Amino acid sequence: MTETLMTWTRACSTDDVPDSEGRRFEVGGHTLAIFNVDGEFFASDDTCSHGESSLSEGYVEPDCAVECIAHMARFSLRTGAVLAPPATVPIKVHPVRVEGTDVLVGLDA
Ligand code: FES
User: Fold this and answer.
1) In angstroms, what is the span from residue 72 Cα to ligand 1's centroid?
2) Residue 49: CB partners within 8 Å, gap ≥ 6?
3) Tens of pLDDT along 44-81?
4) CA within 20 to 30 Å of 36's CA: 50, 68, 79, 80, which one?
5) What backbone phi and psi angles, to 5 degrees, belong to 55?
6) Is the CB of 48 under 6 A from ligand 1?
């Protein structure tokens, strides 16, 4: 069995991302979108799988989904799965943990 090595890297403060919004951050060489859904934080690659749109600018929905502003594809922030077309390819999501006011993202080493 192989185990993927992961490094936890600070992305931002909990205060940096207002509730029901997303923000873009450069984290460990990745451009990530960090989302706040009612105090629960999520991370994904920022670029939509359907095109060159920033998911951090998307509409964050209470069912832990984000809707891309370009063509309204919806993705699960928990799994990255496509919830509504026109996207057909999932987005990459990353594990998040909050320590104090630090939002940490687990990135493949
Ligand atoms: S670029 Fe996101 S839905 Fe088209």
Assistant:
1) 6
2) 73, 75, 82, 87, 88, 89, 90, 91
3) 999 999 999 999 999 999 999 999 999 999 999 999 99
4) 50
5) -70, -20
6) yes
Please give the Cα distance from 93 to 109 (Å, whole number): 15
What's the token pair of residue 22?
A: 């997303």
Ligand 1 center–CA 75 separation, angstroms: 11
The predicted model scores a pTM of 0.94
Q: Is the CB of 37 under 6 A from ligand 1?
A: no
- State whether the beta carbon of 70 lies less than 6 angstroms from ligand 1: yes
Give the chain's domains with CATH numbers: 16-108 (2.102.10.10)
Q: What is the pLDDT of residues 47-56, one digit of tens each?
A: 999 999 999 9
